[in-house]
């Protein structure tokens, strides 16, 4: 890899460009330079190298094929098509050209034409693994997992240790709901390639998805025996123990994982969740605090501390950590709802209004956001503002609860006529709510008979 990054040809080319010199490069050398830039994702330099190369070797078909590839990367499809048509007669026995043609049609959303060019490429008996994967990908685009499976398997025949092909074979089996064939195939593969990390990972995932957690753990253990540094596999193994309710075992796996990690905040968070589920709140808090020491902005641990403190009856601390979590992730509506709830529980109604206002602004389609917002406004005596909110709410939510609330506000403001109109609407929508609403809003007891009499 180091040799790739320290490519002498590339260094010489860049020195030439930088110093405005003119060095001579063979066609093959320009190809190598262009390939380097394409693999590095530096398309502008690949384009530059192509132009320099064609200036010196204007008739080179190989460089024109590279130019075709660069044009596709730059999404210059009209120019790419023109060049494709120019090269067709002379390059139909060039695998790279046929691959570019396949990419052209694939990028333009014509997978069947793309497959035709890949099949022409297969006749040349070069790059079979790549071409079968390409064809399989196009069948995936056509939503044909059966044919995709066939070609991913063929790709594996040409490169038995191709992780991409193997992963997609299992994905196709999953789409086709052929679980028996999938595990038979995987076991057969593992008989031949017992040290395949990808295969053991797929084995673990296969059984995890079928809730056979003991067998999944076996797969992950084999993988860890092959590569003990596979950090993500520890997380998968721990997830198996979590799914089984084996919280202490899950914690042990996460602790092994900590030794391999540079950033530990998420793992401490997961350990905290396990302690929480295991009814060990003090240890859970300790883990969440370690998570925050590793990353003070890790709001997930902030909010989990809030939940634990609430369960312990420490509402002041619960509110504090909920506020901290919301300040770090204001767009999370669930957090806003929780903070509003804690404010209301603590009798801090005015503070809750900030959260409730944000909820009706960001999630106006939810009726209960409006209901809670207007309820709190009434609790603090802001009946005029509650009327404004409720009028807005009833434009999209024709719910009896809102009209009962609205009638109460009007009665509180001595607008008897509007109050009775709103109460009449509420009774029409749902008279069964009246008893509960009368307990909440005593003014309704005095007015309901008048409204019913008027209706008669």
Automatic annotation (TrEMBL):
InterPro entries: TPR-like_helical_dom_sf, TPR_2, TPR_rpt
TPR repeats: 197-230, 265-298, 333-366, 400-433
Keyword Repeat among record annotations: yes
SUPFAM superfamilies documented for this protein: HCP-like, TPR-like
Domain of life, per lineage: Bacteria
Keywords annotated in UniProt: Repeat, TPR repeat
Protein name, per record: Tetratricopeptide repeat protein
Species this chain originates from: Chryseobacterium gotjawalense
């Amino acid at each position: 890899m180091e040799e790739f990054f320290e490519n002498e040809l590339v260094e010489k080319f860049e020195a030439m460009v930088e110093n405005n010199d003119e060095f001579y490069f063979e066609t093959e050398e320009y190809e190598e330079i262009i390939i380097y830039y394409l693999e590095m994702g530096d398309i502008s330099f690949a384009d530059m190298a192509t132009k320099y190369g064609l200036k010196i070797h204007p008739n080179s078909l190989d460089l024109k094929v590279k130019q075709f590839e660069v044009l596709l990367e730059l999404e210059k499809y009209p120019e790419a098509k023109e060049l494709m048509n120019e090269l067709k007669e002379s390059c139909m026995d060039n695998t790279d050209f046929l691959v570019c043609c396949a990419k052209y049609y694939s990028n333009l959303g014509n997978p069947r034409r793309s497959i035709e060019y890949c099949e022409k490429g297969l006749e040349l008996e070069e790059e079979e693994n790549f071409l079968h994967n390409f064809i399989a990908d196009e069948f995936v685009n056509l939503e044909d997992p059966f044919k995709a499976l066939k070609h991913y398997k063929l790709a594996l025949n040409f490169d038995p240790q191709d992780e991409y092909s193997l992963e997609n074979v299992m994905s196709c089996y999953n789409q086709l709901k052929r679980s028996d064939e999938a595990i038979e195939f995987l076991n057969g593969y593992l008989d031949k390639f017992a040290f395949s990390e990808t295969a053991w990972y797929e084995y673990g995932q296969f059984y995890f998805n079928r809730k056979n957690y003991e067998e999944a753990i076996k797969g992950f253990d084999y993988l860890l025996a092959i590569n003990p540094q596979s950090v993500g596999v520890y997380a998968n193994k721990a997830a198996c123990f979590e799914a089984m309710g084996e919280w202490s075992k899950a914690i042990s796996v996460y602790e092994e994982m900590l030794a391999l990690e540079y950033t530990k905040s998420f793992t401490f968070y997961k350990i905290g969740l396990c302690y929480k589920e295991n009814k060990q709140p003090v240890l859970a808090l300790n883990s969440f605090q370690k998570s925050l020491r590793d990353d003070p902005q890790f709001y997930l641990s902030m909010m989990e501390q809030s939940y634990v403190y609430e369960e312990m009856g420490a509402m002041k601390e619960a509110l504090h950590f909920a506020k901290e979590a919301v300040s770090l992730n204001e767009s999370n509506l669930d957090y806003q709802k929780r903070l509003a709830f804690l404010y209301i529980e603590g009798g801090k109604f005015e503070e809750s209004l900030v959260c409730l206002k944000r909820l009706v602004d960001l999630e106006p389609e939810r009726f209960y956001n409006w209901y809670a917002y207007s309820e709190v406004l009434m609790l603090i005596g802001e009946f005029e503002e509650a009327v404004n909110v409720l009028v807005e709410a009833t434009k999209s939510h024709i719910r009896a609860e809102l009209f009962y609330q609205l009638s109460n506000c009007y009665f509180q403001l001595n607008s008897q006529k509007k109050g009775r109109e709103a109460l009449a609407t509420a009774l029409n929508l749902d008279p069964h709510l009246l008893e509960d609403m009368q307990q909440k809003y005593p003014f309704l007891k005095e007015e309901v008979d008048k409204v019913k009499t008027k209706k008669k």
